[in-house]
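User: Please predict structures.

Assistant: First:
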Amino acid sequence: MFDEVTLRLQVDPLILSALREDITSDDVSTNSVMPVATRGEVDLICKEDGILCGMQIFMRVFTLLDEKTEFEVFANDGDKITKGQLLARVRGDIRVLLSGERTALNYMQRMSGIATYTRSVADLLVGTKTKLLDTRKTSPNNRIFEKYSVRVGGGTNHRYNLSDGVLLKDNHIGAAGSVAKAILMAKEYAPFVRKIEVEVESYEMVVEAIEAGADIIMLDNMSHEEMKRSIEFINGRAEIEVSGNVTRENIARLCDLGVDFISSGALTHSAPILDLSLKNLHAI
C-alpha cells in the first residue's frame, strides 16, 4: 500500500488529473438523472480470474470526490480472485458513485492486469535464484501505479526513473565513444553510492565492461551460447541481468542461465487488463 505522504504528494495529483480529464465541466449524464444528492451503494464484481491490485487507488478516487464515501472491502491487493467474486461494496452519494466509476475501474483493471501477468511470469522462475524485474516501459503518468502492481504480482522494480540509477544503454555508449569511456565518465559524474549498469550486446562488450569496472552487466538480445560464455567470463565480478523481448512465452529459455535478474518490459507494456465491473447500483 502507499503511505499517506506518498498518496498526498504523488498519487492524489495524478488521480485528480484523471478525474479532470473525465469531467471537464460537469457529468451531464449523471446530473440529468440524479439532480440532488441521494445515498446509494454499488458492488465491485470480478469478471475473470486473476490477482487483485489497486484497491487503495480505487477507493481514493471516490474519497477525492467525496470524503464521506464508505467502503466494505472483501479482498485485498495480492489476493487471487475468481470470476463472479464480490470484491467490495461502495456506499455514498450516487452522483459520486456514477462520476467516479470509470476512473476508479480504469486504475484497478490496469493494475490488476499487470499484477496478474507478472504473477504468471514470476511463477516460471520459482526454484531459481533469478529475480524478475520490470523496466521504464510504463504508460506516461502511471509509473507509480504500474511499478507497484509489478511488486504485488511478485516482481521486483528496476530503477524508478532516470534520476534513480546509472544505466548506460547502447546510445549512451555511442555518445561516449565506447563502453570503457562511458563507464569512466559515469564514475566521474555519478555519486559514488550509485552502481553502474551497462547494457552490452556482444561478448567483446562484456569483456570491456568488466575491465572498466561495471557493477552490473545487462546482456541484451544475445544468443544463448554467447550469454553462457559471457557469464563464465564475468565469474561473479559483476551482477548479471538478461533482457531483450522477454515474455511469459519465452522466459523459460533463460532459466538455466542462473543470472541474478531477468527484466521484462512486457510486464507493464503488454499486460491485458483484468475485467472488473461496478454493478447493482441502487438507492439505500
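Second:
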Amino acid sequence: MQKALFIVIAVGLGIGFLIPTGPSEAPQTEAAAADAAPAEAAPKARPASVTSGSWGGEARLTRRGNGHFYGNAMVNGQPVEMIIDTGASSVALTVEDARRIGIAVDPASFEVVGTGASGPVRGQPIQLDSVELEGRRINGVSGAVLEGLEHSLLGQSYLSRIGSITMNGDYLTLR
C-alpha cells in the first residue's frame, strides 16, 4: 500500500516537472493581496484570511503566474512553503525543508519509494507530527522526503482529511 502511495507521488512530481515555471512570487492569498501596498511585497509567511473563524471557515488561495497554488503550511510547528498538489498521494518535503524543520535526513540511506515519469524516485518515508494550513491542523500525517524535489508538496495524506477543496478559475478554496 505504501509503495502505491509513493508511486502516485512520483507520477505527480513527474507531471509537475513538465509544467513551465516563471519567476517566483511571494506567496499571497486573496486577503494578503488586498492588504499589500502596490510598492511592497507581501510577507512570505502571511496567512490567508479564514472567513468565519478557524476550522469551520473558508480560505481561498490565489493561483500564481506559474499555474500553481502555494500555501504557507506549518509542518511540525515550522513554516514551509508548499505547492498544493491534489495529484500527490502524500506530503512530500525537499531535503532542505526537512532538515530545516528538524527531520533527520540521510540521503545515503534513501531507497526507491516509487516510479515517476523520469524513472525511480528515491526518498525516505516519514511520519509528521502535524501539518496545518489556514487553521486546518491534522496530526499524524504520512509523507516522504524526496531526492531531487525542488519544492515541497502538500498532497492527499493531508488534503483528504480537511474537508472539501474546490478550484474555480484562479482560486482554490478550502472548506
